[in-house]
């Protein structure tokens, strides 16, 4: 999509997750830095984790536009998130401040995703572009389960080795 940069922005305090599920923000931003190390087009951003209270994508997009009015923002999501986007908090505000870049996701046909795009465009004016990339066959919940079970070698198939090493060294995701 000819983006200048891709910002990786760990969630601050998402309302839909309990504090027990969420790792400390310092660990999450450090893992992002390790994961994207060496790619000059990738940026680790603490923008959202530095905000107070619950963080909603709509509020983040408004704040980003206020801080960077000269930039056009794109929000990368999976097809599973695209199918639930209408249930997010204030999808109309998100749609007014960004274009969604959606990847495919197993479990949803191309036709289902296209129908959802038509619905979102009609209901919220959402702009959606599809990313031309292979579908990921792994979910973050599955990777976290492997880590909780101490399956570090299996986790190395899905995560950069430096990230798995960091997780193991810091005892993260342990039961």
Which helices and strands appear, and what pairs or packs with what?
Elements lengths: L5 E3 L16 H12 L5 E3 L12 H11 L6 E4 L1 H6 L6 H7 L1 E4 L7 H15 L2 E4 L9 H9 L3 H5 L4 H9 L6
Parallel strand pairs: 1-2, 3-4, 4-5
What does this structure look like?
The protein is mainly alpha-helical. The chain has helices spanning 25-36, 57-67, 79-84, 91-97, 110-124, 140-148, 152-156, 161-169; strands spanning 6-8, 42-44, 74-77, 99-102, 127-130. Strands 3-4-5 form a 3-stranded parallel sheet. Strands 1-2 form a two-stranded parallel ribbon. Strand 4, helix 5 and strand 5 form a beta-alpha-beta unit. Helix 1 (25-36) runs antiparallel to helix 8 (161-169) and helix 2 runs parallel beside helix 4 (91-97). The chain is globular.
| Fraction of helical residues | 40-55%
Q: What structural category arises from helix and sheet content? A: mainly alpha
What is the H/E string?
A: EHEHEHHEHEHHH
Number of helices: 8
Fraction in beta strands: 5-15%
**Number of strand segments:** 5
Radius of gyration: 17 Å
Major sheet attributes:
3 strands, parallel
- Spatial arrangement of strands, main beta sheet: 3-4-5
Distance between the amino and carboxyl termini = 40 Å
What average pLDDT do the residues reach?
90
Poorly predicted spans:
none
Overall 3D shape: globular
Pick out its properties.
two-stranded parallel sheet; three-stranded parallel sheet; mainly alpha; globular
Quick structural overview:
The protein is mainly alpha-helical and 175 residues long. The protein has 8 helices and 5 strands, in the order E-H-E-H-E-H-H-E-H-E-H-H-H.
């Amino acid at each position: 999509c000819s983006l200048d940069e891709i910002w990786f922005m760990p969630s601050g305090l998402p309302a839909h997750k309990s504090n027990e599920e969420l790792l400390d923000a310092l660990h999450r931003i450090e893992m992002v830095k390790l994961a994207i190390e060496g790619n000059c087009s990738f940026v680790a951003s603490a923008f959202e984790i530095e905000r107070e209270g619950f963080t909603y994508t709509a509020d983040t997009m408004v704040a980003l536009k206020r801080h960077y009015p000269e930039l056009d923002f794109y929000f990368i999501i999976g097809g599973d998130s695209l199918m639930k986007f209408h249930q997010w908090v204030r999808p109309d505000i998100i749609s007014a401040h960004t274009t969604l870049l959606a990847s495919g996701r197993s479990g949803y046909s191309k036709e289902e995703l296209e129908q959802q795009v038509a619905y979102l465009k009609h209901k919220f004016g959402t702009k959606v572009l599809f990313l031309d990339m292979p579908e990921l066959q792994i979910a973050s919940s599955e990777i976290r389960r492997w880590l909780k079970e101490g399956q570090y070698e299996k986790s190395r198939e899905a995560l950069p080795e430096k990230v798995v090493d960091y997780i193991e060294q810091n005892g993260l995701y342990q039961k």
